[in-house]
Amino acid sequence: MNAMTYRGYAARIEYDPEDRIFVGRLAGIKDIAVFHGTTVDELETAFHETVDHYLEVSERTGRPAQKPYSGRLLLRVEPETHAAMAVAAELSGASLNQWAAKVLKDAART
């Protein structure tokens, strides 16, 4: 996955071969915030400027900026899966929450 992060916001990056530019879009929010650049440095600068501008406009207009995610997740699994997860967490010396957070984080990076 091609992504960038800044101030708690993430962006999905794609390459546009027709225009020969990198195009990014803020991920995890419903507002549309797009930026582009021809080099990685230019793209990163545009990303930072886009996030900063998004937050400034939100503050100036009184419309709260959308937060990408709260960090809270309700997950429903079968009782057998829940039990297996609890055992795996205990065996690893972690709470179920700590264990699940690590497993999900590791899985999301692949």
Count of DSSP-assigned helices: 3
Adjacency order of strands in the biggest sheet:
1-2-3-4
Could you tell me how far the N terminus lies from the C terminus, measured between alpha carbons in angstroms? 8 Å
Q: Helical percent range?
A: 40-55%
Strand content: 15-25%
Number of strands: 4
Helix/strand-derived category reads alpha+beta
Low-confidence sequence ranges = none
What do the pLDDT scores average to? 92
Would you write up a description of this structure?
This protein has 3 helices and 4 strands. Helix 2 packs across helix 3. A hairpin with a 4-residue loop joins strand 2 and strand 3. It is elongated and about 50 Å long. With about 110 residues, the chain is an alpha+beta fold. The chain has a 4-stranded antiparallel beta sheet, covered by helices on one side. It has 2 domains: about 60 residues, no CATH class; about 30 residues. The relative contact order is 0.11. The mean pLDDT is about 90.
